[in-house]
Fold:
Amino acid sequence: LAALLEHEQDLPSVTPDGHAMTLMVNTGLTVDTVASLKTRIGGVGLYRTEVPFMITERFPGEQEQTRLYREQLESFAPLPVVMRTLDIGGDKDLPYFPIEEANPFLGWRGIRVTLDHPEVLMVQLRAMLRASQGLDNLELLLPMVTNVDEVDDTLKLIERAIIELGEEGVEVRRPRLGVMLEVPATLYQLRALAARVDFFSVGSNDLTQYLLAVDRNNPRVADLYDSCHPAVLSALHRLAAESSELNVPTSVCGELAGDPAGALLLMGMGFRVLSMNGPNLPRVRAAIRRVSREAAAELVEQTLALETPAEVRAHLASRMQAWQ
Ligand code: PEP
Ligand code: MG
Structure:
């Protein structure tokens, strides 16, 4: 099977009934093996910038960050690279910036931290913008957004960074801006968010954790953590319909997108862009190449009629087996 998938690497991600999907990759530490996947991918759907920050001894300076981001942008140009601003807190602590809280996943995390420390965010934004000069494939993504004014506040900082750089003789274009949909509150503010940003990216990992009130890293409740829980699937289904009604390009970058059955469900719901870890890409592509859009939509319908995560899992397993 591995050899077969290898062989399919250069084939397009199109269903038997001609529906084209865009598959992107999630990156972190380095451009790693992912750059070799450049054929037939749509770019980087999620670059987790906190990952390189986790292996340094202090906040990397503007020059160091610029070099890092330039490497990502150059490796994939002209394909887009979606860079997420620092998403620390939760389970991602920096050794030189410890955050101690009783409930870290409900606490100071992502955009909440960086808006409280605009000096950190400004260095990052300036470095990203500087790195994009002449390439224009940078897109920005904001993690853990809960309130629309967090977007407004960040927009002001982006504007300021562009002006500052301009005054220093570095002319950059304003990149496309997106928000992660991962805090359930955002699902009820899509219209207001749509008025402010260019795209949405669904973080199914955190969305699952917050919808189900299950810590994604706690082994005691690991059995309860399931992105195929009927409530999560129902939320994703509505989200696909509403974002399409609002005309906002919406991708999914959580683990669900990198699971073949999950990817088919997302395709059936109407998501056309999926971003995943590189190693998952061949299997997801193979699933898309074997299952029609129509069959995927039927799978969604059948699945949404089920009432427990176990029933959903069993149904998906039996359908996947039939399609092998
Ligand atoms: C997510 O929450 O689904 C996501 C993609 O972001 P992270 O896993 O980095 O929190
Ligand atoms: Mg997340």
Remarks:
- The beta strands are 22-27, 44-48, 81-84, 138-142, 176-181, 199-202, 250-252, 273-277.
